[in-house]
Amino acid sequence: MRPYQVEYVQLHGWDAEIVGLWLAENEEWLLLHYIPVDYVVDGYVLISKAHIATRIPNKSQQQAELVLRLKGVKQDLPSDFRFADTLSLLRWTEQQYGLVHFVEEEDSTYLGWLNEADVVHFWIDTLEPNGTKDIREENEKPFAFHEIRLIVFGDDYSQSMKLLWQHHCNHELWETGNN
Predict the structure, then answer these.
(1) What is the 3-state secondary structure (H, E, C) of the chain?
(2) Which of 155, 4, 152 is nearest to 90 (CA)?
(3) Largest alpha-carbon pair distance within the chain?
(4) Cα–Cα dist 103/44, whole Å
(5) pTM for the structure as a whole
(6) How confident is the model at residue 3 (pLDDT cuts 50, 70, 90)?
(7) What is the pLDDT of residues 118-150, one digit of tens each?
(8) Per its UniProt entry, which superkingdom is the organism in (predicted)?
(9) What does the alpha-carbon distance between residue 109 and residue 90 come to, in Å, rounded to a whole number?
(10) Residue partners of 59: CB distance under 8 A and separation at least 6
(11) Rounded to an integer, what distance in angstroms lies between the CA atom of residue 80 and that of residue 96?
(12) Are 89 and 151 in contact (CB under 8 A)?
């Protein structure tokens, strides 16, 4: 295990840094306990190393590390986590957390469920911002595995969206049962 270290990662073409507590890495992926703002730890983020421009030292790194230690944030891997190919990582996050959440570009986040995949592409049924499920259309453009920059899981936003979707499903079932 590597020493306790907060990483500041800059992706090619992105303005914002991705910040997190280092947990593990292999040749293709970097796994961090995600820190979206200041000292808030919110789930995990897998960063595709193919899209990393730099891993930047930051002057506030030591203070961030101190605060995380004081909060008792551990450097533990998520339960049953193992590095794998992108499709297997997406399947694992869906099995463990109930949906997939990935980012292609800085302003394009997708949540949903895997629908179909081949060797280079995949399709999802999308979880819309209002908490409804949009089933993939036959002519819908696929996502390419190599374009994924981040895979996010165990975070508050994903879990909140999943709860909203479950609420809609339960409400629809209740309304159907009363008709």
Answers:
(1) CCCCCEEEEEECCCCCEEEEEEEEECCCEEEEEECCECCECCCEEEEEHHHEEEECCCCCHHHHHHHHHHHCCCCCCCCCCCCCCHHHHHHHHHHHHCCEEEEEECCEEEEEEEEEECCCEEEEEEECCCCCEECCCCCCCCEEHHHCCEEEECCHHHHHHHHHHHHHHHHHHHHHHCC
(2) 152
(3) 62
(4) 13
(5) 0.91
(6) confident
(7) 999 999 999 999 998 999 888 889 999 999 999
(8) Bacteria
(9) 14
(10) none
(11) 9
(12) yes
| C-alpha–C-alpha distance, residues 67 and 28, integer Å | 29
Sequence-ordered list of residues with C-beta below 8 angstroms from that of 151, at least 6 positions apart, any chain: 45, 46, 86, 89, 90, 93, 100, 101, 102
Structural domains of the chain, with CATH: 1-79 (2.30.30), 84-179 (2.30.30)
Nearest 5°: the CA angle 117, 52, 96 is: 45
Rounded to 10°, the helix 156-177/86-97 angle is 60
Q: What CA–CA distance (Å, rounded) separates 7 from 103?
A: 19
- Measured CA to CA, the distance from residue 29 to residue 26 in angstroms comes to 6
Mean per-residue pLDDT for 168-179? Answer: 64
What integer pLDDT is reported at residue 160 of this predicted model?
94
